Amino acid sequence: MAKGITSQELDTSTIKSLVPHLGTTTNNGEVYNITTSEAISVNQKFSIKFNVAIAQTPTLKINNGTAYSIKKVNGENAKLYDSVYTLFWDGTAFILQGEGGSGNVQPDQVEAGFTFTNDNGEFTGTLSKQAFVDAITSKGVTASMADPFNILAAKINQISTGLKRASGNGASSVVEIANLDFEPLIIIIRCNGSFYYNDGQWGNDNRSAQIGGAMYFVKGESNYNISASVTTGRDGSTNIEINPSVNWYMNGFKIIVQTRTSSSSDNISASIGRWDAIGI
Asked: What pTM was computed for the model?
């Protein structure tokens, strides 16, 4: 049975012999050289300090012998800094051990301010969240640079992609709403207008008329009237119309309707029945 090594037997010289440190290199272009009294055998590890960084095709000579490539574990050429590394000599190349991260992720794919490594070394991410924050905020959802990407993704789901609708009943000639949870873009009202005229005598010249219907308004477009020509007693016909005015708010609207007639009148009125607002 093989005898184990005790902690007392595992002294400093023993540890050094397991993974010897060869010292600091010199270089001629991309060729490193190390002068050492250590004998490096095939399938042996050793540590070494490179004196300069080389990023293309580094090679290493031991005691000015043959130059062999320094490779990463995936077979690609190593990118080296002026630092200490552990190498494994496999008989054909020096294989970098524990060289850190690898991969093909690029700075614009990593959040700004965070560092990472890929096949070409260590980098800092440049992907800014500002464009995401601005886009979400512009759709009415609160977002900030402090939100992690997963929170911003969840907030995207809060963005309304459909139309919203609200409705109510009027009564008078003025309806003002300023508490909607959306911006109205279209308003539809049902309204009525009427007038009455009393000649104050025998009633031969009394006149009266009513008009009603639906009116719709589109934000940014001109308003229109409801009008009609109606028979009003023995004098023939009279024109009657309902004139609206609309003020638009970000969270509501104000509509005023008035009845107008070409005839003399004692009592003229207008009213709004039901209203509907549609928006986003």
From this structure: 0.44
